Every structure is written in C-alpha cells, then in structure tokens.
Amino acid sequence: MGHPSHSADCGSLNDALRLPIICEPDPSSQTLVAPKNSIKLLDRKRVLGWLSENVPEKRLNHILRVEETAIKLAEYHNLDWERAAQAGLLHDLAKYFKPKRLLEIAKADGIKLDPVDEINPHLLHADVGAIVARDEFGVVDTEVLAAIYNHTLGRPGMSLISCVVFLADGMEPGRGDTTELNEIRKLSRKNLHRAVLQICEDSMRSLFASRSLIHPRVLQTRNWALQMAQQSAKGDKPKLSSA
Angle CA(204)–CA(93)–CA(85) in degrees, nearest 5? Predict the structure, then answer.
C-alpha cells in the first residue's frame, strides 16, 4: 500500500481522517513503499522546545519513549518509521490543555463530540493534538495526523501506523513491567491488531472495575481489532475501511 503525502491544505481534520485506509490483517507482511522524502520534514528541535514549555519533564520523557517505541515497532513490521516517529513525538501536544480549551478547539474544527467527551474533555487531547500538529507545526500528512488523533481511543479502520502509535503509547517502557504489559509487548511483534485488541480489553476491564464511563470509540476499536485479528487467523484478505 502506498502512503501518499498531502501537500494541499487538509481543511477540517475531521474530513481529512475520513479518507479510505487499507487495514492489513497481517502487518508483518506489509513493506515500506513510501520514499523517505514523502512526508514533510519536521523541525524536531522546535517541537521539543514547544513541548518543554507546555508539558512537564515527566511527560516529555514519556513522549520521547513513545517516539522511540513507535520507531522500533514500525521498523520491526517494515512500516514507515518516519511517520511513526513524527506521530509519536507529536501525540501529546494537547495533553495539558484545559478542558474548556479542548472543547473550544474541537468544536471550532468540526469534530463531532460524544456525550462522554463533554463530560470528560481530557479524552479530546488526542483529537486536539492532531489539530495543533497541523496548525502549529504544519503537519499535513493525513496518516501522521490520524495516528495522533487515534492514539488514545483508537478508531475502527485505523491504519497500521495508527496501530503502532496507539500501542507505543500504551506499552512504552515507562508504563511498567507487569505481566499484562509484557504480554502486549510480545503480541505487538506478532500481530498489531491482536495487541490493539488486548490493550482495549485491558482498558475496558479497568474502567468497568472503577465504574468509569467508557467512550464508545474504545468499544468500537475493540470490536474492529477483534474482527481484524480473526481475519488474520483465517488468512482472509484485508478489507477497505472508510474510517
């Protein structure tokens, strides 16, 4: 599958993320076909400077570990590590935005809000982070933006790069050394969709136990990842998704 870059203005990020994405059931078989210069170079020093002023040092260290984990996982699966690296570095841009600011930015960009978003606006930090990446740092590649957008709740039909960043955020070394995390790390090298499924189910169990609200996208992502993992086990061909 090709990874086209998008030099034109994306317009609404919500619209950009509706572009069709092929979801491969066997990520280990996908090869890197995009040329190295197919995405816009990112001023990493400028991003790090911005992050140092907008997130605590502990969070910055997490971001750098996510970036490194995403690169390694993308390389392992022969995916575009540069896209994974950009999304990993940019994934938490809006992590410390106030709830009011998150809601205002999301609404202004036309993001459709779920009632759970209204109750817990912090969940929007991923969606808004993609908007900040686009507007503050000029990122126009829709796969990078989608990976930022999807890193917290996931999304049915998300690309393999999105899966990589979603997993990197949840399993980077700083998250711990539990049996559950180590199992996800092993799964991530065998099958990305199975690992996404496991993270979703672990998250849902924790939310059920604490009687917390569960965003519908988590359940939708779980169901999609389950279907993709089952297709992979059967050797079925990938399906085209418009998510």
Answer: 85
